[in-house]
Design a protein that fits this description.
18% strand; 356 residues; 59% helix; 6-stranded antiparallel β-sheet; alpha+beta; 6 strands; elongated
């Protein structure tokens, strides 16, 4: 009975808080579209759909804030009206009062994870496609010339790359560099070629083999050369966003990038965020009631103020940890994504000891 009573106190502020904050993000996106682009070229239906498809992304970040708001408001109200005092007088420990809030946070965390894992990849892909089709993106995906790529065996640069209807790539002005031996460098040049399913077909290929030690240069030529060298396609065109992938797909992309010698720190942090952000729902469900009990007598609006302070501190710490500390390799990607949760959980446990 007590558990159901406390959970009922959480539901309305949780739903209201989560949706209000998510709609604030959505409104900010709409304002950006209206200010930045010629809205006459963007159908209203396309703008509505883009905002709708981005909603799972916003909810992923706002559900922890909704938990913080709901827990702070509910516990503050129960404390100010002496209901928690009555519970404790009946022999109910503080941890027992907080337990249904934590369980509610756990349910929300599970829902948040499935939202990120099952719904968000598809909705984000649809939103990005709409942006490109409607002309909202600054430019369609394109290849940048004079960029050297790290393939598994070669260093490569291309003059131009064009996608074909069969999803192959038409490549021009190709230069491939290889070092098959410690004292030998081989350069392959071709005016044009084709890439499909990991197979390069190069036309009119010229070989130049140089030995830096002996200064010997060997020239060669072939009408056609076929190379089995899988390419990390996203190096050429706009990358598929990590939000478009499930955690399994993101993990596979990280492994593929590492095999090709890419720095995948950013993607690794985003992978761990898939779990740390939903887990923040549990952290807020534990920490917010504790601080609400401590400060409940200080004012009628302390619940709202406390929830905003907690969310502000958490998300600023989260941005610093993931975007600065993690990106600069001061912490491992795992710790960069989980450090705010660990710190807040520690502060909550210290406050709980004082409360008991």
């Amino acid at each position: 009975m007590m558990d159901r009573y406390i959970v009922r106190e959480l539901i309305v502020p949780f739903i209201a808080g989560s949706l209000v904050i998510a709609f604030l993000f959505a409104a900010n996106q709409l304002i950006f579209i209206l200010k930045t682009f010629n809205v006459q070229n963007v159908p209203v239906s396309a703008m509505v759909q883009m905002i709708f498809y981005r909603m799972p992304f916003w909810l992923n970040m706002t559900l922890p804030a909704g938990i913080s708001l709901a827990a702070s408001l509910a516990i503050t109200r129960l404390s100010r009206e002496s209901e928690i005092t009555a519970m404790r007088a009946a022999g109910v420990r503080v941890v027992r009062v907080i337990l249904p809030v934590v369980l509610f946070g756990f349910v929300v965390a599970v829902g948040n994870y499935f939202l990120v894992e099952k719904v968000m990849p598809k909705s984000e892909a649809k939103a990005r496609k709409l942006e490109i089709d409607a002309g909202v993106a600054n430019a369609a995906p394109g290849y940048l010339t004079n960029v050297w790529l790290n393939l598994k065996q070669y260093r490569a640069t291309f003059g131009s790359v064009t996608r074909q209807p069969d999803d192959s790539l038409l490549v021009k002005d190709i230069v491939l560099g290889d070092r098959p031996q410690a004292e030998t460098v081989t350069i392959l040049t071709s005016p044009a070629g084709r890439y499909l399913n990991g197979i390069w077909t190069l036309d009119d290929v010229s070989f130049t083999t140089v030995s830096p030690k002996t200064h010997k240069v060997t020239l060669g030529h072939a009408a056609k050369v076929t190379i089995n060298q899988p390419l990390f396609i996203n190096d050429l065109f706009d990358q598929q966003e990590p939000t478009d992938r499930t955690s399994a797909e993101l993990a596979e992309a990280i492994r593929a990038g590492k095999r090709l010698g890419h720095d995948m720190t950013h993607e690794e942090i985003l992978f761990h965020e898939r779990f740390s952000v939903p887990a923040a729902c549990i952290i807020f469900a534990m920490v917010a009631p504790i601080f609400a009990l401590i400060f409940a007598r200080t004012g009628s609006f302390v619940g709202v103020l406390l929830s905003f302070v907690l969310v502000l501190l958490y998300y600023n710490g989260f941005v610093i940890s993931t975007e600065i500390v993690g990106r600069n390799h001061w912490l491992s990607p795992f710790l960069a994504a989980w450090a705010p949760n660990i710190i807040f959980a520690g502060l909550g446990l210290l406050a709980f000891r004082r409360l008991e």
